[in-house]
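Project standup — Tuesday

K.O.: blocked on the structure for the chain from last sprint. Re-posting the sequence here as requested.
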Amino acid sequence: MTSDLAVLRQRAMDRAKQLVPGDARVRIVRTRLAARIPTARWRSLPDVLILGGMRCGTSSLYKYLGYHPGIAPSLRKEVEYFTRSFSEGEGWYRAHFPVAARRRAHRRLTGRDLVSFEASPYYLLHPHAPERARALVPDARLIVMVRDPVERAFSHWQHMVRHGIEDLSFEDAVDAEEARLAPEWERLAEDPTYVSTIHYHCSYLARSRYAEQLERWLAHYPADRFLVVSSDAMYADVGATYARVLDFMGVPRWAPKTFENYSYLGADFGPATSTLDPGTRSRLDAVFAADQARLAALTDGMTRA
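H.V.: unblocked you, prediction finished:
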């Protein structure tokens, strides 16, 4: 099957999945995963991790990379092994990736390695994810996606509202964040096995402090293992950004004929109707100013796309 036909097939499958109720889709993925666990010992670990951030275009990049004939995506996006699913064990994690025989066959046919990857946006924020990742995949390449921090926080809040998770206004949710998250940060520090729903869902400001998050990862991986991708730049020129990501991953340049925005693909809800208040925008610009300056310093000299 040619690459373009493979893309058309995958897009048709993506659309067909939307006809299946969400609960049924989850059961299907779990069944497929269970069937792969017995072969976990013969499966390789990922070469690349997309760490986040949330609402920064990770869904679109996951799809774009999955279309590439030399790249094998994880069984599902957001594996979350180094965060909420760490207790499942390494075999469970390996079951999300291709068997070594497939990689050997790809090399025989193409003369190149098949590159595997996953994308879990919570990795960037979670305090234990960098250490866990370093212990298991020390040679992984790491992709960090960033976006205007205020826009990202507001989009995050809209996403939670759409799903019925958040009932506070954006301003109230932002004001409540410190009180909400303080005990969660403490418990996560004290108990590495703790899974925090509040920390995962309601970290609007925390997830937009990119420098603070990146510093935790830089304590475990050298700077040359990172690629920083601007989602604004990606959507302004998807082809050029995609090419730079492929170069970073070490695979040949190739692209589908069209790039779709997958931000809401599969969602059974429409866009939120609220808009960002200009006063709130100005206030949060000031809140994020120091972190943005630190981010510029941290990423000076890093590979960017």
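K.O.: great, moving the ticket to review. Residues 265-270 have pLDDT under 50 and may be disordered. Residues 20 and 300 are 45 Å apart (CA to CA).
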